[in-house]
Write a structure and sequence with these properties.
single chain, alpha+beta, 5-stranded mixed β-sheet, 7 helices, flat, binds ligand 0O2
């Protein structure tokens, strides 16, 4: 995003009064820190589940975890695009993906296993589930999404913070990363052809993910002899 656009959006958020401006900037820092803390809480929960399940003989259900806090300009751009008020309260009220965490599993059944384990934790409130594995998007996108609320304890308060959790296999992630790159390329030549090829790959990937689970089961049954 161009620098002038970023300044323009920030100006919409900040009050005119200089003292109030500084106060709002400080509050903004605190809000962003809260989202980063919420990501840490959720990341730790998945790391603990992975450690425990590995010890229980499930091998590592989670292959890797990555996370990101949306940039300030990304946050303001989304508020603007969706027509929400440009205020700090509006960020918390209207955006669910300021804090995002992505869990990559080797196998599809591990996705549901770890998702369920998080959902069952009594401090977690599940606000929304979108299962694009059971119901893939028309372009072939597959991933399991949840918006959860986790309480984060600060010096003098406990705040429920929203985090977007995306869980997918290594193969689904490989596909999504390439497709994401195409989405941001405008005027791409042979776009229709690429869309078709990506859809074909997505179907192949889904079939391969299924087959990998079957092979894993065969290996398990042999090694337990
Ligand atoms: P980015 O650039 O990754 O942040 P939302 O727009 O998030 O408020 P939406 O689109 O209904 O609401 O939520 P959904 O469907 O759960 O999608 C959220 C995120 O999932 C997207 O964020 C993408 O990261 C990912 N995603 C969803 N659909 C696709 C897809 O077709 N292809 C790929 N590669 N990723 C997808 P953003 O903010 O759209 O994008």
């Amino acid at each position: 995003m161009k620098e002038e656009r970023k300044v323009e959006l920030l100006e919409e958020l900040l009050p005119q009064d200089p003292v109030e401006r500084v106060k709002t900037l400080d509050e903004l820092d605190i809000l962003l820190m809260r989202y980063e803390s919420a990501i840490r809480e959720i990341r730790t929960k998945f790391e603990i589940l992975n450690d425990e399940l590995s010890l229980l003989g499930h091998q590592n259900p989670i292959a890797s975890i990555s996370s990101r806090r949306k940039t300030l300009s990304g946050i303001l751009e989304k508020l603007k695009r969706q027509g929400f008020p440009m205020t700090l309260e509006s960020i918390e009220e209207n955006l669910t993906d300021v804090a995002g965490i992505r869990i990559i599993c080797s196998f599809v059944d591990d996705i549901y296993k770890v998702a369920k384990m998080l959902q069952q934790q009594d401090d977690i409130k599940v606000l929304l589930i979108k299962d694009y594995i059971a119901k893939p998007k028309p372009n072939g996108y597959r991933s399991y999404h949840m918006i959860v609320e986790v309480p984060v304890f600060f010096s003098n308060e406990k705040r429920p913070m929203k985090v977007e959790v995306q869980i997918r296999t290594i193969a689904m992630d490989f596909w999504a990363n390439l497709e994401h790159r195409m989405r941001y390329k405008k005027d791409i030549e042979a776009a229709d052809e690429i869309i078709d090829e990506l859809k074909e790959c997505a179907d192949n990937i889904a079939a391969t993910d299924e087959k990998m689970m079957i092979i894993r089961e065969k290996i398990r049954s042999v090694s337990s002899d």
